[in-house]
Design brief:
The chain is mainly α and about 60 residues long. The chain is about 65% helix and about 0% strand. It has one domain.
Length: about 60
């Protein structure tokens, strides 16, 4: 006997893997720039999103 709930398969695609990659990249970027508290560095970065966009798109990235 098969129930309808058993036949349902959630399809998440690549979303979770992409978000994990972006999160790990951001953490690595903060550590490379000397951050010891990643949560604080993330909060500060949220307030300066234009600096992050410049760092990612610039051919000469600046450090903090």
């Amino acid at each position: 006997m098969t129930f309808r709930e058993d036949l349902h398969q959630a399809r998440t695609g690549n979303g979770p893997a992409v978000l994990a990659t972006l999160r790990n990249t951001a953490i690595g970027w903060h550590r490379t720039n000397g951050a010891t508290n990643i949560a604080r560095a993330t909060r500060q970065a949220n307030r300066r999103s234009h600096d992050l966009i410049t760092a990612v798109t610039s051919s000469y990235p600046r450090t903090q």
